[in-house]
Hints:
The structure holds 2 protein chains of 2 kinds.
Chain A: H1 2-11, H2 16-20, E1 29-30, E2 33-34, E3 36-37, H3 48-61, H4 71-91, E4 99-102, H5 105-120, E5 126-130, H6 139-148, E6 151-155, H7 165-171, E7 176-182, H8 194-202, E8 208-211, H9 223-226, E9 230-234, E10 245-249, H10 251-256, E11 267-270, E12 275-277, H11 291-307, H12 309-328, E13 333-336, E14 345-350, H13 355-364, E15 367-368, E16 370-372, H14 377-382, E17 388-392, H15 399-416
Parallel strand pairs in A: 3-15, 5-6, 5-7, 7-8, 8-9
Antiparallel strand pairs in A: 1-2, 4-10, 9-10, 11-12, 13-14, 14-17, 16-17
Chain B: H1 2-7, H2 10-17, E1 30-35, E2 42-50, E3 53-62, H3 65-78, H4 83-98, H5 126-140, E4 145-147
Parallel strand pairs in B: 1-4
Antiparallel strand pairs in B: 1-2, 2-3
Amino acid sequence: MRDIKRDIEAETPLDAEALRADFPVLGQQVNGKPLVYLDNAASTQKPRVVIDRLKRYYETENANVHRGVHVLSQRATDAFEGARETVRGFINASDSKEIIFVRGATEAINLVAWSFGQKYVNKDDEIVISAMEHHSNIVPWQMLCERTGAHLRVIPMNRDGELDMDVYADMLGSRTRLVAVGHVSNALGTVNPVAEIIDKAHRKNIPVLVDGAQSVPHMPVDVQEMDCDFFAFSGHKMYGPTGIGVLYGRAELLDAMPPYQGGGDMIRSVTFKKTTFNTLPYKFEAGTPHIAGAVGLAAAVEYLTGIGMARIAAHESSLLEYATPRLLELDGLSIYGNAGNKAAVISFLFGDVHPHDIGTILDQAGIAIRTGHHCAQPVMDFYSIPATARASFGLYNTRGDVDRLVEGLNEIKEVFG
Amino acid sequence: MSELKQLYQEMILDHNKNPRNFKVLDHPTHKAEGYNPMCGDHYDLSLQVEDGKIVDVGFEGAGCAISKSSASIMTTCLKGSTLEEANQMFENFHRMLTEETSPGELPGKMCKIVALQGVKAFPTRIKCATLVWHTMKSALEGKEEVTTEE
Lengths: 417, 150
């Protein structure tokens, strides 16, 4: 049923121009020009419903969650736990106790690296990641390897930015404890074949963590259909608040894992002799959580669901199809990341103009892009480049935005000759 | 566009395209590496100092037009300068980009560093312009690695 719903959705294009009006920040001028925001892979703008929801939470519901006997505490708890259920439905987890609220994808991955790592990873074991990971899916594993004496294995990629699945299959062995891969590369836009990656690992009983920070905002995600064991994502990249994110974990794995942080909320009973830990999901949520953040994230989820993720994916895909040849028409422009299956992220270089100079000149034209290594230095090293300029699209971007980008790049030509 | 034109004025573009003293000295008395991990700008600077005077200076590396032209202009200004003048220029360069003072009010040798005053209107780019100047200061102070971060 889900697939049919997705197909119907995707066939009705969304009206990005109309949706723009939902985002107050997009209405402004930057450097005297109407803002074109093309830095969505770094962070997305927030619709009015999310901003209003945060305000309403603080104005009418705010208190600490759980155990409170007063009305506000009950309202806050209801809102917070309701948010968990909303997120569960959004990614189709089987149980809301599998939804752990964290600060963001980075904390979600660190949680698994510490907790799963402590229980299952020992000297000479192996963790498999890929050549196109964001630093947040490299460094926690390196730190784990440092602590335990385990080794990091890296799935290589080709020049187009596609993983070598044969090498990957050979990499999986008796010492492999976990595979951790990005669903979509923030630096190249590659959509990795996670179903195949998971299937190959599961055949050898190896669990898989998927970093979904760049996929959840842009395409339908169903964690049961994907069959991943862990799935990490951030609220602020999906039109929700900063400082809130989610770790989805299969209940039996999370149950077996030790707590990540100790403190209030994550315990069942505490004496100076012995502490027993709370059940899921609270075992992994020490201290007062970011209640407003979770509530705001749920508002973002409802907003996205209202539009339809398949429709958003189709819209962004058509923007990518429109933008790619238009950019390549520019003399000296080269795109990094040409995977067959690609999200609407375009990393590029333009002649010998340094990405930072591109970024400054575009900013003067009211166009926000990102320049630098995009927290993926190994990807830059792979192409022997220090940095790229990156335009990344979201649901509110239009073909007009692409035209403005091309116009801005033509101005760069004028400045640099 | 006027702020942009002032930033990317002809002298900056020229030094970016044809950087002066783009070389590593064979026998430097002082050297340092300048690196901005946020953007990847990376330069090696080497200096030859004799009797309190910079007799030769070279830099190599890669980065944006602002960092590279700033480095190139700096080397042309340093060549033949005393250490005292070099320090004065460092101070002036810093003050020009971070204080309200106009370049004309700054004391001592200014050389061509005024060409970079347009950077001041772009706060996110000031680190680009100052990177190699900090590298120079560290080299002269005997520290071999400098990093600046935004």
